[in-house]
Amino acid sequence: MALSVDSSWHRWQWRVKDGFPQSASEFTPLLSTRRQSQNYNLRQQRVVFPNNRIFHQDWGKISRRYSGNRICTTKYTLLTFLPQNLFEQFHRWANLYFLFLVILNWMPSMEVFHREITMLPLAVVLFIIMAKDGMEDFKRYLFDREVNCSSIQIYERKEQSYVQKRWKDVCVGDFIQMRCNEIIPADILLLFSSDPSGICHLETANLDGETNLKQRRVVKGFSQREALLEPEHFHNTIVCEKPNNNLNKFKGYMEHPDKTRTGFGSESLLLRGCTIRNTEMAVGIVIYAGHSSKSIFTQQGPTTALRDKMKQKIQISPFYSLGILLCLFSGHSLWNRTFEEHPPFDVPDANGNFLPLTLGGFYMFLTMIILLQVLIPISLYVSIELVKLGQVFFLHNDLDLYDEETDVPIQCRALNVTEDLGQIQYIFSDKTGTLTENKMVFRRCTIMGSEFSHQENAKRLETPKELDSDSEEWTHYQCLSFPSRWAQGPTTVRGQGGAQPLRRSQSAQVPIQGHSRQRSMGRCENSQPPVAFSSPIEKDVTPDKSLLTKVRDAALWLETLSDTRPAKPSLSTASSIADFFLALTICNSVMVSTTTEPRQRVTISSSTKALGMSLEKIQQLFQRLKLLSLSQSFSSTAPSDTDLGESLGTNVPTTDSDERDDSSVCSGCYSTDGGYRSSTWDQGDILGSGEGPPLEEVLEGPALGLTSPELCYEAESPDEAALVHAAHAYSFTLVSRTPEQVTVRLPQGICLTFDLLCTLGFDSVRKRMSVVVRHPLTGEIIVYTKGADSVIMDLLEDPARVTDSNVEKKLRKIQARTQKHLDLYARDGLRTLCIAKKVVSEEYFQRWASFRHEAEAALDNRDELLMETAQHLENQLTLLGATGIEDRLQDGVPDTIAALQEAGIQIWVLTGDKQETAINIAYSCRLLDQTDTVYTINTENQETCDSILNCVLEEVKQFHGPRKPDRKLFGFCLPSEMPSTASVDVVPKVGLVIDGKTLNVIFQGKLEKKFLELTQYCRSVLCCRSTPLQKSMIVKLVRDKLRVMTLSIGDGANDVSMIQAADIGIGISGQEGMQAVMSSDFAISRFRHLKKLLLVHGHWCYSRLARMVVYFFYKNVCYVNLLFWYQFFCGFSGSTMIDYWQTIFFNLFFTSVPPLVFGVLDKDISAETLLALPELYKRGQNSECYNLSTFWISMVDAFYQSLVCFFIPYLTYRDSDIDVFTFGTPINTIALATILLHQAIEMKTWTIIHVLVLVTSFLMYFVISLVYNATCVTCNSPTNPYWVMEGQLSDLTFYLVCFLTPVVALLPRF
């Protein structure tokens, strides 16, 4: 993205040209000290006054406008619970429909059942849901009360001290004092931290699920405070943006009494719900409280309802049932017309008058609706939820979806979309971490046009199982063997100004460079949790032999630098290699802690003082070590640093408390701001000896017991971790990082401490990261930049501007060779990064820093201004080299993709990687095949893009023919007619590759229709260099325009928008945190699990639920029709031949459990067959189990069975004198037997549970009927079912009818 240069930059140039001595900050409107008092716009910004004596009046006026910190997440109160809950439940049209029936049944002219009986089903459903909602809301109330009553230290103005109060007493503008392990009560701006560097460590697990630490920094100008912040001395006003739900962005400024401003961002905001870690004390001022805090504001936003395709069809099906009722009533009307006069069963009123035909017909219609209300199953919705719950249970307990390595099973975070897993038509997948392991392994690099292939490292990676073996060759090439030099105490650390005393942020104890390998015992032997990016395959890099010698020259070159003779701009190999590895070490956000206690600061116990020796002795020792030849240290016979460290022993030198604190600053615990953790095992032994023994004795003496803690690297991304590991392999070791400085240990053992002037973090728009440092030896200000080659190569200095022709030729040669190597790396499937640098003058940097400061303090267009400042600095770069990092495919990815494509699923891979890299991975994972015709579209011109799409479409249609769209009727998909081809086998398969720039042209140029038309002919689509926003736009485009079922799968925070845009979102619980998992419907640990999840469980869930829904409508229609046929014999009076309670028991007890078991346990096809024949998955895509034809076939079957079940008993008892219930009892028994046997035929899998449920349901009918008929004497006056069942069981005709009728009814099913 290119932004126009702001006029403020030219304003700087104008001031310099006209000779203004003042700096930019003195004249800019935002930073002017002569600016008049500010009138704040409270509608567009939030103003926070501190709650102290000076601002008390302003605080009192403003704080009333802002919400307090008390939260209330409950939906109801005691007074509103009943009316509000009923109001919500009657928003469901099914409940409203049955309420309408209850009201109708209370009208005397249309009463069919007893009024209480009609109310019972609805009352039960309403009560169950009401009880569930009430329990959930009561739990929310208890949680709210617990949170609101939590204690916290709040500054009390009257007492001028911090007092303990409750969370709900916190107000905006209050000063809050927090201690380690306390939860943050509101969104707080950090003003003080007990950490010497002004860092506060947070655990954000409550927000994003990530257990690793983040760091927040004190607002600029407050980090140097040694004493605790005094609220009464805080005289600043805070202006920031209005509350919003963006957790990752925050902007504002602090206005000082002199009207100057200091900007701050999200790096200084402590979010509510986070936990303070490894920081003894932190003090801040409340910015957002209660429901205005970002974490709660996020939960209040609009949520997208999950698109349950099956439920949408179920909502339509009852209308078909209503249509059946209308058809039945129409048949009744036609039958009435056959009578010349009034039908004999019509009864006149008291005056002898008959009701008008229209009114009578209307009453009859309402009476039939009441009588046949069972036709619309109110219990179906409850049954569906229970079935889905059972499906999720078995899904969660599938061992094939359990990852033993991470001990993580599948997580089902959404219970209402299980059947949609069986209807997926499009899959949108991320690449890195989803298809690949997200274990970045350093493979190759190119420096100044020279390529270093690292063949030894490649051989090591080919045999990953042997990586933990202690081979001699691996040990030999692991580290460089420079003589280590101590740089502490009276000796010095090389820094700016040559030799100078130690500063606070430098290490008082720098261990010798070394490496200690640990044997792999299958599991970690320590109790620490595994750290991301810490496996041996990621940490250990075998150096390239040819590069080792060049690194030696680079180390010697660094020895010659000093501030008296600054390094001239040079293209020498030694200087470039040194800058290359310094950039790998410095240009990142990696923080250093220890592996033994990765979240604790490094301190040295006072008990170790007696074991140490004086700093003078150490200096003398290293003066003698210094006599060793530096060149010999590179020979294969020279002892490694590890051996040297072990030989010298490990006594810790005596240090005072200040020195111990300095040590903790250097190698203490710092967590990354980005949330990634990576470790490298950097074993440096601390030297010690007795009272000056000979050097030979020291070298040969046994090592004493104490060693310094091993270093742990916590990186912002796996790429950063891989580059730091690579630099460590060549003995450029990151030792310490603070917000102000970063310390690097060179191969010689010397430590260089760089002043960290500015960090421009990586973002998806710039696609690069830069750090601005002051070189400790030359004093130069250097910008180190790394980023995507497509960006960095465009920011390099134009060789044509170089006056020296030789230098120009060399620059062009370097750029050409580097580009060639980048293309080679991309073809090999490696992730590429370019490394560059730039030296800027002091004056230029001061002006740029002033502009940056002004941009940080801005509220309007802050992001654009920050982007602009970065562009002004990141240009005219000098290319140092590039790296190639391998991200291996996960196991089973090719087989999974091939199976999903056979299942008729179109797979799109949306990645931000380089096109060549993505294409290589696509071929490796069988997304693309060598026989495919692959079209690649790369253009930034709309007309060109339109022309290419037309040409490709025309060419593709020549092979495939025109494509006919899918047809739909009442929400049911009808089979689409595929284009006819002469021979399907000879039609080439098509793949499409497109980049992010072309996608922008498509979206902006209204070319989406042509693009989608082309993709429908493609078996796979690969989108490269795509941003997170483009990913979500693509998913929404396909989902909405093609009206297909979509699934998105990813593992990182950049995939969240894509996951939320799809019908089904799946997160992979990998190494990139938990944000993708927390935004998903299902979470798996490996991409290969997607195969069984969709092809097996998806098919089962869809098939079970679809057939269960069809069965529900079948059994209700079948049973209701029995009552309808009887109306022809009772004059459509609404009378029934079955007892009212028996009708209720029929659905409540006798036929309720078998469909549930059927929907949870039935397997129409075995898992082995579904995996072996992925084509079977297309049944779900085509809705074969639940479509218009299957629905109406079941309805016809239900009509036939109801006719048989009614008229065979009718013909049997036609001339008898039995009463109405004696006639209805065989019909009821036959209907139950037929319906249960019908389900037994539908079942494809038989278990003991199926048998028990069916038999128990049938026997329960007889038990309940016998008990009910024996005890009910006057239950249904004037007719009562007393002793009816007992009498039928003694009649042989009853058994004969009950046996023959189900056989005839089910005969078509055989």
From TrEMBL:
Membrane topology of this protein: Multi-pass membrane protein
Domain P-type ATPase N-terminal: 63-118
CDD domains: P-type_ATPase_APLT_Dnf-like (cd02073)
Keyword Nucleotide-binding: yes
EC number: 7.6.2.1
Keywords: ATP-binding, Endoplasmic reticulum, Magnesium, Membrane, Metal-binding, Nucleotide-binding, Translocase, Transmembrane, Transmembrane helix
Reactions catalysed, as given in the entry: a beta-D-glucosyl-(1<->1')-N-acylsphing-4-enine(out) + ATP + H2O = a beta-D-glucosyl-(1<->1')-N-acylsphing-4-enine(in) + ADP + phosphate + H(+); ATP + H2O + phospholipidSide 1 = ADP + phosphate + phospholipidSide 2
P-type ATPase C-terminal domain ranges (all copies): 1077-1310
GO biological process: lysosomal membrane organization; phospholipid translocation
InterPro entries for this protein: ATPase_P-typ_cyto_dom_N, ATPase_P-typ_P_site, ATPase_P-typ_TM_dom_sf, ATPase_P-typ_transduc_dom_A_sf, HAD-like_sf, HAD_sf, P-type_ATPase_IV, P-type_ATPase_N
GO molecular function: ATP binding; ATP hydrolysis activity; glycosylceramide flippase activity; magnesium ion binding; phosphatidylcholine flippase activity
Region feature (Disordered): 489-538, 636-664
GO CC entries: endoplasmic reticulum membrane; late endosome membrane; lysosomal membrane; phospholipid-translocating ATPase complex; plasma membrane
EC class (word): translocase
Annotated active site: D430
Residue numbers binding ATP: D430, K431, T432, E720, F762, K786, R831, T911, G912, D913, R1025, K1031, N1054, D1055
Family membership: Belongs to the cation transport ATPase (P-type) (TC 3.A.3) family. Type IV subfamily.
Name under which the protein is recorded: Phospholipid-transporting ATPase
Biological source species: Loxodonta africana
Gene from which the chain derives: ATP10B
